[in-house]
Amino acid sequence: MFENSSKFARQDAHTAEWVLGLIFACLAAGIVGTGYFYYRNYEKIYRAAVERQLTSIADLKVSDLVQWRNERLGDGSIFFQNASFTALVRRFLEKPEDLDSKQQLQVWLSKCQAHNWYDQTRLLDAQGVTRLSLPAALPAVSTSVARSVSEGTRLGRVTLHDLYRSEQDQQIYMGVLVPIFDEQNANRLLGTIFLRIDPSTYLYPMIQRWPTPSSTAETLIVRREGNEVVFLNNLRFQRNTALTLRESLDGTLLPAAQAALGKEGIMEGIDYRGVPVVAALRTIPDSPWSLVARIDASEVYAPLHSQLRIIVGLFSALLFGAGAGVGFIWRGQRALLSRTEHSLESNRGKLVAIIESSDNAIYSKTIDGALITSWNEGAERLFGYKAAEMIGQSGVSIIPQAFLAEENEFRGRVGKGEHIRSHETVRIAKGGRPIAVSMTVSPIRDSAGRIIEESAIVSDITERRRAEESRSRLAAIIESSDDAIISKKLDGTITSWNAGAEKLFGYQVAEMIGQPITRIIPPELQADEKEILDRLKNGGRIRSYETVRIAKDGRRVNTSLTISPIFDGEGKIIGASKICRDISERKRDEVALRESEKRFSEMFNSSPVATSLSTVREGRYLDVNDAWAKMYERPRDDVVGRTVFDLNIWVDLDRRAALFAKLQERGIVRDFEMELRSKSGRVVQISWSGTKVVIGGESCLLGSALDITERKLAEEMLRASEAKFRTLVENIPQKILMKDRNCRWISISKNLARDFGFRPEDVVGKTDSQLFTPELAAKYHADDVRIMETGHVEELEEKYLAEGKETWVNTIKTPVRNANGEIVGVLGIFWDITERKQAQEALRTLNAELEQRVRDRTTALEASNKELEAFSYSVSHDLRAPLRAMDGFSMALLDDNAGKLDETAQGYLRRIRAGSQRMATLIDDLLNLSRVTRAKLLRESVDLTAMAEEIGGEFQKSQPERQVALIVAPGLAVYADRSTLRVVLNNLLGNAWKFTGRCAQARIEVGAQERDGQRIFFVRDNGAGFDMAYVDKLFGAFQRLHSTQEFEGTGIGLALVQRIINRHGGRAWAEGAVGRGATVYFTLEEKGTDS
Amino acid sequence: MNGLKTILIVEDNPDDLALTLRALKGHNVANKIVEAHDGVEALDYLFGTGAHAGRDLREQPQLVLLDLKLPKVDGLEVLRRMRSDPRTRLLSVVILTSSDEEKDVVNGYALGANSFVRKPVDFNQFAESVRQLGCYWLLINEPPPPCAGIP
Q1: pLDDT < 50 regions, chain A
Q2: What is this structure's pTM?
């Protein structure tokens, strides 16, 4: 049955040959077709572009021509129906000899000729005779023009005369005809204006101009004349064609002919030269003209042809390439085919043998009927069915019910030529045993290549499955292990490296497989590895070997190694598996524990705190430290092993019971105060802290004791001291507070707390901000901080609220220092100064009032002073004037009328004069008195002795006849106002001089005597004296003790003296007796006189 | 004696004026005497205004006897105006007054008075004072040239 395969191969080779040919044919057709269509498409696009270009050029020309024609007609319309021009023409035609109208006409016509369009202008009369022309004296117009003139009359508008050949010079011209009608006379034609155009100046060049560079393109205009088309301009490729070249209108390929027939659009044809052209045709509106814009097809299609050549070349190359490729493949195929055929032949026998001898089950089935067609020995072995049993059967017996659908699906897929490879599924052996199998199903073709059968190769994978499962389980275990599991060959090359190893050593699997294991062994332990390997080679195992390995980052890892040999199938050792466990942590713990034990032991022994370890049950000491031994005056050796009872150490066993109860309850006891006895019997007060520990199963007490004997004493003293302090604080009227370094209240006296409305216990521990308003708290806090920072004692006066009432307190705030002199708080002492404050306030108010009163009084005084001044000024001026009049006129009377007045009258007048003069003196004295009180004193050193002598001298001079003894004490120097002091001396000496007037032995003495440290000056005389009974009146103003007859004077002198002396801060008084003289004493406030 | 210069007496009190004139006459002072009875009259005379409008101002008194306490404009003010006007700045002014107030004396001199004389009550003394004044200011003293004060 397997002989078929070689036939299939041959068949396939032939098929391939045939297929190759077909492929080539298709390729060739494709390439040629593509080339053709590509070219056609390109051509179409190109042609459209050309046509667009031609069309736009033709349109441009048409619009230029239309515009040009309209402009010409416009020129003519200047004259048409122009009344003044018409009048001018009429005048000229009626009176040709009128030079004026002729000249005016010439001016009109010359205006037209200003353009160079017109080479001639002329006026024709109704008969067509030229009557006036520019240039002058032109011959008659051509006959065609003459004909048009008469037609123009009929049309009655401006017309263009089309191109014509002049009969005079055989040149081609155009013209504008303007009929001039006589409007006054029923539109009779007066004449015609003819403007001749030379087309060669503008029209022809305009037509021939082509806007793009081209070697063959041109524009031409034609018109139809009968059955002919007439070319109106000279052509690019033929001379003298204008109006001479004529072609038949029958030429359907001639663009000019088609244009003349009125066709428009693009056409391809043959032009006047017989050359193929592409042309755009247009008619010119309102004209006999048609326009042809043409270009030689050769020029138009030159780029198209070169493009065609490129395309042909390109696609030929492609075609050749395709042919060569196919040929090459065909040759290869041919060689392969012959080789295949040969090998197939030789292999066929082998194949049959292989199939038959294969361990795999191999069988084949028909596609359509699913009948088994072959069944090898392997199949017989695997499924237990013989070939004879199965061939020709459907073979569903080997397929589990659940897999039937799959089987059918596969057959379908194979029927379409697919292969199913190594599909793992289940089949059933004879007897119903399921077998895990791997199947490969392939199609089998007949010689025609049709799929007729399928082959199935089935292998049993039950064992493999099992092995895989166990391996994956193992691998999972290894991979999930936290331990590093490494296997290596006997030469130390690593063969496996699990996730644990990655984690422990930091190396990835890829980094380590194939590497020597020595990479993770520290240099100093390299020898160990060799030893380990040696031991392994001898079949030994190594368990929990603790050593050090090195991780990737150089970290040393403490590991515990368990190494086992790996045997091959024959029991030969081929390697070792190694389990490394990280024991760094354990190692560290061990070291820590050892160190901790050591530390504890040291601590226990060296601790300054008496520490003991004793059993709970017996109270037996297991250990005590040196401090303990010292505290109880018992060497350690004396104590260890003995019980508390042996040592009689407890003072109060009830206390011990209480301790144990507490221990029982909490397991730990802190600061339990108790008393123990030392060896010498001294009772030691201790504070005990300890806990129950279990040592060797025995419940023990580990405790430390602090000797608090002294502390207790100190506490007692402190309590006493505090009580004293408290008593003091509570009993002094001052209020006291204390705050700590952080300004927290430590203590407050009751009276202060009462003022604030606090309870003392509520204040302690609080800060100001919790007790007072923010402003007050901030102020207090700032004060406290400042005092604690500077260390200065401060005394402040401040307001505060006592029981809600605002009071003033005097505060002394003092920094509080501890024994080391560090500031630890602040102490404040307050006392109430509200009353003092109030008194101060009252005093201040009073002072202010007083000052105000003084100010008021001063103002009043000043006012009255002012008044006084004004008064005395007035007195001085006004009071004396009448006196002067009295005196003056009395005198005048006496002088002028002395003869007429008797002695009595004269006496009266003299009395009037004396009275006046006396009054004047009184006034002057009064003024003096008043001035003295007001005048400013200028104190200076004054020699009183000299002054007295000088004044005395003056008196002596005024009354030289008198014998007066003036005795002035020498060296009377005073510090006083010189001018007023002079007034004093003048008065006193004057008085003395006056009152000694009746003495035979007059004596005046000026001197000073010392009494009570004060100098008393005096002026003494032995004159008339006075009665001491009137001494009070002596110093009053205008008080006199003597009559004017007796002694002259106003009585103002002593008043003046007293006032001056008073102003000098001194005193003046007098002693005397009638007939025994008088003494006037005075003192002066002697400031700075000692100098 | 028509070449003699005038004396201007400014005095409001007719008694005093009469006594002064009497004293001058008694001492044969023949100068023309112009009387002014208040400060305004004095200024009018001196500056040719009011009742004296149009007066020839080149003719200014050789001596002005000036009382202080005057109606309308007082003596010190008259003096102040005289001294501040170039036409009268250099005229000899003797203050002749009842007052001997220091204030008046000081102010008088400060304003440029040439002399300060207190009128004594005793007419003999008064006449003597006037005699001496006339003697001194009219005969002994050399007055400034006329119009010397006018710049």
Answers
A1: 1-6, 1088-1091
A2: 0.35
